[in-house]
């Protein structure tokens, strides 16, 4: 006998942006990435985004929302940055939190049909394990600036004037993230940087679309001076104090998160200094769809 079917309802974007965040708020910090993505200024004016839920748009107030539901957000308007996010409040065993079941799922997805699981079964596929760190922004709300007497940049858009995509300066700034991002995206993000005595930018950090610490980089010659921690503290502190509200990021969730590649001790130390803890592990799978 077939089980009950699941139906998704698609409200107007304006209605979804108003409706979904209050439902997700009680589930912070778990819901932080989706909560912030729905509120991100990148979604307005309306773009090719899909907002959907398993309850109809005419559902009663949040306190009467069904106990079990799913909220979906998909954005295909930024090419390589396309993304699909799902959230539901179903209970999850704490025992599985660090078991990384995604590794098993990833192995199955990459397996040869009827054969032995191996990465080569999917052309140009790579997998990595990541830890998601989460912490309250209030931890950094009163943090001081960068170490070693460096001048902390007050400008929020470090990509302004970075030059065309192929320029040396753009490539230097783009190295902060292994996830493909367009210059148009980074220019909209809250960011701060540190310049040396000659005015050259030597360290910088950016807040991502999901309201998390998405990028943090220090030039090799300036490492081991506390600059990474200083930039992260200042950036997250400003986010928590609402100083990026004019950019559309008011820090209203009270949380910051960051996906850190397993074994990246430097980034793990920064997140620990911010008061963060590892809340879950996940498996990232990159597939060159043009080779399938």
Q: Can you put this structure into words, describing what you see?
A:
InterPro entries: Acyl-CoA_N-acyltransferase, Acyl_CoA_acyltransferase, GCN5-like_dom. Residues 193-238 form the GCN5-related N-acetyltransferase Rv2170-like domain. This is Putative acetyltransferase. This protein is an alpha+beta fold and 292 residues long. The chain folds into 2 domains: 13-89, no CATH class; 133-290, 3-Layer(aba) Sandwich (Aminopeptidase), CATH 3.40.630. Helix content is 22%, strand content 22%. It has 7 helices and 10 strands. It has helices spanning 13-24, 32-39, 101-109, 168-174, 183-186, 227-240, 265-273; strands at residues 49-53, 71-75, 83-87, 126-136, 151-152, 191-195, 201-207, 213-218, 255-261, 277-286. The strands form 3 sheets. Strands 5-6-7-8 form a 4-stranded antiparallel sheet, with helices on one face. A 3-stranded antiparallel sheet has the order 1-2-3, covered by helices on one side. The chain is globular.
Q: Could you give a quick summary of the protein structure above?
A:
The protein is built from seven helices and ten strands.
- Count all strands and give the number: 10
Low-confidence stretches: 141-151, 153-157, 159-168
CATH superfamily of the largest domain: Gcn5-related N-acetyltransferase (GNAT)
The CATH architecture term of the largest domain is 3-Layer(aba) Sandwich
Strands across the major sheet, in which order? 5-6-7-8
Distance between the termini: 36 Å
Order of helices and strands: HHEEEHEEHHEEEHEHE
Structural domain count:
2
